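2024-03-11 09:14:02 INFO receiving multi-entity request
2024-03-11 09:14:02 INFO entity count = two
2024-03-11 09:14:03 INFO echoing inputs for audit
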Amino acid sequence: MNITANEVLDAKGLSCPMPIVKTKKAISNLKAGEVIEVQATDQGSTADIKAWSESTGHQYIGTVEDGDVLKHYIRVASEAEKKDEIKHETVIDVTELRAKVDGKEAISILDVREPAEFAFGHIPGATNIPLGELQTSIDELNKQDELYVICRTGSRSDLAAQKLTEQGFKHVINVVPGMTEWEGPLNHDN
Amino acid sequence: MATTKVAIIASNGGLFDAYKVFNLATAAAASDAEVGIFFTFEGLNLIHKESHKNLPLPEGKEHFASGFKQANAPSIEELLTIAQELDVKMLACQMTMDVLKLEKDQFIDGIEVAGAASFIEYAKDASMTLTF
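2024-03-11 09:21:47 INFO inference complete, emitting structure
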């Protein structure tokens, strides 16, 4: 799996609590939406990094084992995201989207998560444009399409849905809550 | 997200005690918790300028020294520095200092000297209180 991170932190050979202490320091220099790769050899670090993300509100994306090295991926959350205000009016439950996908309906799915999250699993056929790049990549999308916008929990996709509607997209539907509840087929990048 | 508040009482002065106290304190502070440690009786060794650099292992457990090295555990000095960088509040017990005839300048910089009531005031709304 090839995953791009904004920052790579070397915590190899360090024992508890150093991997999370170093992660805490490194993340304070990153912007919301950026992804950090934490390399550790401490076997307890997977559980610790998950728990740390839970406590701090940042998003644990996943871990890849590379020989003896554990590579943990974390996405830096923004303050707004932690508040979780949903505003875009047209929404669809993720199970209803699943029915459309299973029924092979010709629909467009836009996944606005970061490429690293997308790589760990996405709905087959979905297009990936991270929320931060939506403005510059908006021409890749068709304004007349029925566009299902999805992220992890529904807050980034809500912001994206609002932005697309502002830009003249006619049929934008926010998928709630998002990939956290998706139980259908997944594609992984190899 | 509501802030987690951790209150720790450190009342023993060995190397094992120091790791228990400082590992949890730095892990909690790195997880955005507010952390305060009250050092009392032998626990004062952990912040004494000289003593904290050379804390004893329990009798008969001296052979664990190599285990700390192999696990690449940070030194107590390192953990103390990290704790201070993460704004862990450190209170030295006034009463113990009086009894043992210790002065504030014998301790590392950045600590506060306080009585039991100050710690109780700090700990009364803590999410958890840990004793070592």
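2024-03-11 09:21:48 INFO post-check: Chain A has a mean pLDDT of 91.
2024-03-11 09:21:48 INFO post-check: The domain at 84-181 of chain A is CATH 3.40.250.10 (Oxidized Rhodanese; domain 1).
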